[in-house]
Design a protein that fits this description.
disordered N terminus, 473 residues
């Protein structure tokens, strides 16, 4: 699941450069003493920085990987093959091939940040309920429809959450805020991986049998987290409304400007970044979607052990993403960090495919690489396109990422049904190899064109000061 400017679904920005490509200026004071329209605020509740936006999409991330946590149960109870199972992820991605271009527009021009967040949260809730009803009624196409509706709300909710963050926080605080948001999202994914199987077993013991009804009730219980997120969205709207009145604070906006005609002006470096993004994430998210059964079958793990190791990527990402974000911000050299992440991911998939070494080693490496790549890759877009094209560039990047994930998810299911896990791991390794080739090409293209993608942070800061001085003169 990607994060807008990620996870970044979605999933994922250079925390130190967040303000560079999320253009909404914060109206909150940097000082701890905030000034209201009528004078100094003395600790009124509405002037406190809201913490609810950290967990606004907890339910979305929790429920996104419900299928992965219950792969065995879904395939057995619904009597579907792996390709049909992976279609549940594809149906989530399909609407976001288009919606990623318009999520920011809807927030800025149509709904506003408060109403938009509530509407997208409702889509998430309704989608999860329909998904669960599809299982209860033993109707798989209804489950697919639920995932489609869920997808409409999920990605756009991430856009809304980031807009809230930029609206309420500014300066150095924004680094911590984005890190906490991403960490909370990954905690939601981790809790899902480790608790949904247990919930299923308890529902099965209560009903006395397995089947669609057991699966449906389990998914409905998981949907409670979506109601929790909707409640947070309502509280956020209330707090933001009070802040608007007391602080003369305007509603946050994404600042997106989407012009599809800008695509013709995209540089070769940007297209290579797109290729890296699609090929890399195609080898991560679909693998996690199928990982639980892989660890059960190849390494003879118990269901609980398989769930734990399959969630380690998210567990590592929760604390490491803000750390790596600050590291890349301090050191620069984005292409080198991306190269390290891609090579580490390739090594991880090769170990899982061709060895019987303890898979915890490979999965921990994958978790570290995944966190590092997210912090180094997504900010590079802001270095290769003008500011007025950032909305289009990030929208297009999300669009092709979701298109790639939808296609790869179905392809991975078909490969597993016909060839088995070894061929599937070779396929994922091939995707990472394509990403590696694109990184190497990006390095040379950037070097030959005199680009700044691989500058150190000190060099970039120095040249920015020089440019600012010349502009003043």
């Amino acid at each position: 699941m990607s994060i807008y400017y990620p996870e970044c679904s979605v999933d994922l920005i250079d925390l130190g450069n967040a303000k560079r490509f999320m253009k909404t200026p914060s109206r909150m004071s940097e000082s701890t003493e905030t000034l209201c329209c009528t004078g100094t605020c003395h600790g009124c509740a509405s002037c406190e920085e809201p913490s609810h936006h950290y967990i606004c999409d907890f339910g979305s991330y929790f429920c996104y990987d419900n299928p992965a946590a219950l792969q065995t149960q879904v395939q057995r109870d619904m009597k579907v093959n792996t390709a049909q199972f992976m279609a549940l992820y594809a149906w989530y991605s399909w609407p976001n091939v288009v919606l990623c271009f318009f999520g920011g527009f809807l927030i800025d021009r149509v709904f506003g940040i408060r109403l938009g967040t509530i509407i997208f949260s409702i889509f998430v809730c309704v989608g999860q309920v329909i998904f669960a009803l599809g299982a209860l009624l033993n109707t798989f196409w209804l489950m697919n429809m639920g995932r489609f509706i869920f997808g409409i709300g999920g990605e756009s909710l991430a856009v809304a959450q980031n807009t809230y963050a930029v609206s309420w926080f500014k300066g150095k605080e924004l680094n911590l805020v984005f890190g906490l948001q991403l960490s909370m999202a990954r905690i939601g994914s981790t809790v899902n991986m480790n608790i949904m199987g247990w919930i299923y077993s308890k529902v099965r013991d209560l009903l006395g049998y397995t089947g669609p009804s057991t699966l449906g009730l389990t998914l409905m219980i998981g949907g409670v987290t979506c109601l929790f997120s909707l409640t947070c969205a309502l509280i956020l709207a209330y707090l933001d409304k009070r802040a608007e009145k007391l602080l003369c604070k305007e509603q946050g906006k994404t600042g997106e400007v989407i012009k599809l005609t800008d695509v013709k002006d995209f540089s070769l470096s940007l297209w290579l970044i797109f290729v890296i993004c699609v090929c890399y994430y195609a080898a991560v998210f679909p693998f996690i979607g199928l990982g639980k059964v892989f660890f059960i079958e190849k390494f003879k793990f118990s269901s609980q052990e398989a769930s734990a190791i399959n969630s380690i990527v998210y567990i590592i990402s929760a604390p490491m993403s803000p750390v790596f974000g600050l590291l890349v911000d301090k050191l620069g050299k984005n292409i080198i960090w991306v190269l390290c992440a891609v090579i580490t991911t390739l090594a991880s998939h090769i170990m899982l495919a061709f060895t019987f070494w303890n898979p915890w080693i490979a999965m921990c490496l994958l978790g570290v690489a995944y966190s590092l790549l997210a912090c180094a890759l997504w900010p590079m877009v802001a270095f290769v396109v003008p500011e007025h094209q950032l909305g289009t560039a990030y929208g297009f990047m999300q669009s092709i990422q979701n298109l790639g994930l939808a296609i790869i998810a179905i392809a991975a299911g078909m490969i597993l049904d016909t060839r088995g896990y070894l061929f599937l791991e070779v396929f994922f390794s091939a995707c990472v190899c394509l990403s590696l080739i694109a990184v190497v090409m990006l390095y040379f293209v950037n070097h030959l064109t005199g680009g700044d993608l691989n500058w150190s942070a000190k060099k970039r800061e120095k040249l920015q000061k020089v440019a600012a001085t010349e502009k003043e003169i």
